[in-house]
Amino acid sequence: MIKDIRRFAVVAVVASVIGFFAPSPAYAAANLPYPSELGRWWLGSSYTGTGLQPMKNSSGQKIGEYELFVRHYHETEYSFELQVCVWDTLANGRGVIARVLLKYGTSSSYEVIKRKDGGGCTNTLYPSIGSPVWAVDVDHGETWSGTPYRYTGHFDRYAAYVNVNQRWPGFM
Predict the structure, then answer these.
(1) Mind listing the pLDDT tens digit for each residue in 20-51?
(2) Which of 56, 67, 100, 166 is 20 to 30 Å from 86 by CA-CA measure?
(3) In the structure, what pLDDT confidence band is assigned to residue 163 with cuts at 50, 70 and 90?
(4) Is residue 10 part of a domain?
(5) Percent over 70 (pLDDT), the chain
């Protein structure tokens, strides 16, 4: 009996600590600060962008990589500078595509870029949207003969940092 109580107490402490540091729905709903820039701030202020991020297919296998750079500023609308680079690392005859979407409202998305692999980067784009944006998503996709785009079921979401000790790319 005492052994079960101790086990329950340890599980409760671990769950409360993990719950304290885990992202919450309130975290996801916070609008991006402006001006802000997507970066890896735990490494220092000069590490902008996401760094190389893996792209995965529907079974979780790495099929490519992308790197995303985003600057957010506010003039008359909510404006961005975006650039994405995409590389196919599997080279299995299929290509990879990264779709960059701005997330606003409760579940609305605005597609900004759809970039196919080719070992290069898009030109810098300057999209504006009339609503506050709370996240930038990158959808992983594949393409092959007769299929221009197939979503793989994987995406990465970049939102505002809650604190500077977080260890994923975010806006600050």
Answers:
(1) 444 444 444 589 988 999 999 888 878 999 99
(2) 166
(3) confident
(4) no
(5) 83
- What's the token pair of residue 145? 């003969």
Q: Are 66 and 87 in contact (CB under 8 A)?
A: yes
Token couple for 146: 């007769």
Domain at 74, CATH number:
2.60.40
Position 24 in a domain: no
162 lies in some domain: yes
The residues that bridge with 116 in the sheet, in sequence order, are: 97
Contact 56, 140 (CB under 8 A): yes
Structure-token pair, residue 11:
């599980």
Q: What percentage of the chain exceeds 90 in pLDDT?
A: 53
DSSP 169: -
Q: Is residue 76 part of a domain?
A: yes
Determine contact, residues 103/133, Cβ cutoff 8 Å. yes
109 residue type, one letter: S
Task: Return the closest-CA partner of residue 72 out of 7, 1, 151, 128.
Answer: 128
Domain count, the chain: 1
C-beta neighbour count of 138 within 10 angstroms: 23
Range of the domain at 116: 30-171
Token readout for 138 is 């990158």
